[in-house]
């Protein structure tokens, strides 16, 4: 087997132009963003993230009002009884969104329920009979918030 020399008369590849000179125009100089532009973009980003965080906190973050379904029974073609336990402050009143879904997952009942604290506000039990437009297979509490 013969050896082939890798040396070329034109020099290494890095020294050669990747394309013929003058054929594709000239390269543009990179422009850097001014400090004021970077500062304004930074402030806008922080503001947007703060607004998004506040909105998510309002939707999901209030830990003082939490509910969990303990049972759903008395299921007929037009209703379901949903029993849930809610945790709330002793001096608070909650509004909970109760819903029912059918076997395809379609919502067949939805209602807001106002809940006043019981003897133990940390464990207030509520049973609500939800009227539905079809036969439900589940009863749920989507969430609770202060009234």
List its traits.
single chain, 147 residues, alpha+beta, Immunoglobulin-like, 2 domains, three-stranded antiparallel β-sheet, 18% helix, Membrane protein, DUF4307, transmembrane, transmembrane helix, membrane
What does this structure look like?
- The chain has 1 helix and 6 strands.
- Helix content is 18%, strand content 35%.
- Strand 1 and strand 2 form a beta hairpin.
- With 147 residues, it is α+β, with helices and mostly antiparallel strands.
- Keywords: Membrane, Transmembrane, Transmembrane helix.
Summarize the structure.
The chain is of the alpha+beta class.
Spell out the helices and strands N to C. HEEEEEE
Poorly predicted regions: none
User: Which CATH-level-2 architecture of the largest domain?
Assistant: Sandwich
Structural class: alpha+beta
Sheet with most strands: strand arrangement:
1-2-5
* Rg from Cα: 33 Å
CATH topology of the largest domain: Immunoglobulin-like
* Domain tally: 2
Secondary structure: helix percent: 10-25%
Report the sheet-strand fraction: 25-35%
Number of helices: 1
- CATH class wording of the largest domain: Mainly Beta
> Between the first and last Cα atoms, what is the distance in angstroms?
89 Å
Largest sheet: 3 strands, antiparallel
Using DSSP, what is the number of strands? 6
| Global morphology | elongated
Q: What's the pLDDT, averaged over the residues?
A: 84
């Amino acid at each position: 087997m013969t050896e082939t020399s890798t040396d070329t008369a034109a020099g290494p590849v890095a020294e050669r132009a990747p394309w013929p000179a003058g054929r594709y125009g000239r390269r543009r100089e990179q422009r850097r963003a001014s400090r004021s532009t970077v500062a304004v973009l930074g402030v806008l980003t922080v503001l947007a993230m703060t607004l998004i965080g506040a909105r998510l906190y309002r939707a999901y973050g209030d830990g003082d009002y939490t509910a969990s379904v303990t049972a759903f029974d008395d299921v007929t073609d037009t209703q379901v009884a949903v029993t849930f336990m809610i945790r709330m402050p002793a001096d608070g009143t909650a509004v909970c969104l109760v819903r029912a879904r059918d076997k395809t997952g379609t919502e067949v009942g939805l209602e807001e329920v106002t809940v006043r604290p019981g003897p133990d506000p940390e464990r207030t039990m509520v049973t609500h009979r939800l009227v539905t437009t079809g036969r439900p297979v589940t009863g749920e509490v989507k969430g609770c918030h202060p009234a």
